[in-house]
Amino acid sequence: MKVLIVSSSEDDVRWIANILGEEEIVSIDSCTNSTDAIQLLAVNQYNLVLSEAYLAVLTGFDLKKLMDSFGYDIPVLFFTDKVNDNTRKEAKYAGVIDCFSTDHLDKELPSVLAKIDGVQA
To answer: By three-state DSSP, how is residue 70 classified?
Structure first.
């Protein structure tokens, strides 16, 4: 499986990469903003996109809209430190599989990955 991580925090990227490594993910690319993510999506085949929901300039929500407009049919998961019911509802409405807190990333990410059809390594 090939995963793209979009986060302004290098610490979050390392943490997510470590969690994904435990899940035997094949390849991980990362970038710090949605603009770079769109460029990477144009030249690579990803099975999953993990994006910070509230990135500067173009948010994760904007990234999802751009992905949809370009026809990318790739599962997207959001993470943020500001998860609440409204964020989850907005993410679901945008077509995002799930949105979870960075506080619980190590517990929630593996269980979410297990539920996504076709995303297992």
So the answer is: coil
